[in-house]
Amino acid sequence: MNITLANTYDISGGAGKAAYRLHKGLINLGVQSEYFVFKKDTNDYTVTSPVSKGEKFSYYLYRQLESLPLLRYRDRLNKGTYSIGWISSTYSNKLFNSKAQLIHLHWINHGFIDIKKIKKIKKPIVWTLHDMWAFTGGCHYSNGCEKYKTDCHQCFILNSKVNKDVSNKNFRIKRKLWKDINIVVVSPSKWLADCARESEILKEKKIEVIPNGIDTDIFKPINKKFARDTLNLPQDKKLILFGAIKATADERKGYSKLKEALSIFTELDKIKNDYGLVVIGGSKPKNEQNSLLKSYYLGDISDATTLALIYSSADVFVAPSLQDNLPNMVMESLSCGIPIVSFNVGGLKDMIDHLKNGYLATPFNVEDLAKGIEWVLKDDNRYNRLREFARAKVENEYRIELIAQKYFNLYNKVSV
Q1: Cross-strand pairs, 26
Q2: Chain segment 371-406, per-residue pLDDT in tens
Q3: What per-residue confidence (pLDDT) applies to 242?
Q4: What is the average per-residue pLDDT within 303-325?
Q5: CATH code matching the domain that covers 224-397, chosen among 1.10.3720.10, 3.40.50.2000, 3.90.660.10, 1.10.10.60
Q6: Percent of the chain at pLDDT above 90?
């Protein structure tokens, strides 16, 4: 079987990592998998990307051009990525010449493949959703808005007060163009699958749930003392880990909620000396003063081995997201035997079994989030059981070998 996977980035972002892991998993199954990307950061010869200087430059050009329609909405809210999808590079035309029996789309924004071009793909399509963009007027996460169920308009993220705004135009184009295309939608989480089924744009499509996969030989428990020595982190503190792309700046990832919870958790001065906060993917905020805990900001980390060390150095990973699909960092932490504390939202409740491998707090109750951190850490025997269940959850449900096989079975059904 010959499959082409398409994603804007090969390993950057959660979607890129998930798609790349699947690509390698398929190859190990004996599938002829091509990974077709717009911007390549690896030197992996199995990843197809722009070669000429013009094609490479087109990534930067088209990413900027793609955002031009948003210039009229200068007062739009900072609510995460917003993509119009009105333009795509000429490089993406090569996707149509692929010898693949089936095209597997992933995250295709930033000027890679536009809305209209998807309809021109004359082969069966599987599309894995890594966020909500495929069925909204342009937002990647709706921030609680449910207009995607009927008709996007007066987009609050754009701070728009008119019905026929760009969200409405985009929504109607998607609904019209994608109505009759041969496509099977895959969601990594049950939550996102339910959103897609309730959406006006995708409600008539076949929607499957297949989680992202992970290499459990890379993301595995490592001796904590060794990990902390390697990373120059303290041995005498319990470390609370938080991470995401733009971790401290992305409102959706809930950093402000974490700070509120830690304020409750550290009411007693003596506790502050016993705990530390480790942050991946963000620098210290400019306006942050008098940190509640001694904090260690590790910046952007993409190397998988280093990430496994960081997870293994921690005692708990806190994921206070307000909306999320199936975040890689949560899965990676679990795979390294680290319990999770999060709000009971989105795809997080797929990965976290309450009181078994972590704690699901009431959305968006920071007191309960603080209670969850305390509950995970205060009993050593219980904590060791949580670690065992965390690793077992991933081994039983998310190993890349299992996920690649599920996709292979789906490809066989779709390509018939």
Answers
A1: none
A2: 999 999 999 999 999 999 999 999 999 999 999 999
A3: 96
A4: 97
A5: 3.40.50.2000
A6: 80
Q: Which token pair is 228?
A: 């902390």
d(CA 186, CA 183): 10
Contact (CB, 8 A) for 105 and 6:
yes
- Cβ-proximal residues to 65 (8 Å cutoff; 6+ apart), any chain: 87, 111
User: Residue range 266-275: average pLDDT?
Assistant: 74
Match 């503190």 to its residue by tokens: 237
The structure's pTM equals: 0.94
Contact indicator for 149, 132 with CB cutoff of 8 Å = no
CATH 3.40.190.10 fits 2-213+400-414, yes or no: no
Answer for the pair 9, 416: CB distance below 8 angstroms, yes or no.
no
Q: How far apart are CA 366 and CA 372, in angstroms?
A: 10
What per-residue string of b and e applies to 198-234 under the rule 16 or more CB within 10 Å gives b? Answer: ebbbbeebebbbbbbbbbbeebbbbebeebbeebebe
3-class SS letters over 230-269: HHCCCCCCEEEEEECCCCCCCHHHCHHHHHHHHHHHCCCH
Give the pair of three-digit tokens for residue 200: 């006006």
Fold equal for 2-213+400-414 and 224-397: yes
**pLDDT digits 0-9 by tens, 162-174:** 999 999 999 999 9
Share of the chain above pLDDT 70, in %: 97
Rounded distance, CA 147 to CA 247, Å? 27
38 SS3 class: strand
Residue with tokens 């190397």: 303
Task: Report pLDDT for 38.
Answer: 95
pLDDT tens, position by position, 177-197: 999 898 999 999 999 999 999
> How far is the C-alpha of 305 from the C-alpha of 20, rounded, in Å?
16
Query: Average pLDDT for residues 101-125, to the nearest whole number?
Result: 94
HSE-CB for 44 with a 13 A CA cutoff: 20
Domain assignments of the chain as residue spans, ordered by start: 2-213+400-414, 224-397
Q: What is the largest CA-CA distance in the chain?
A: 65
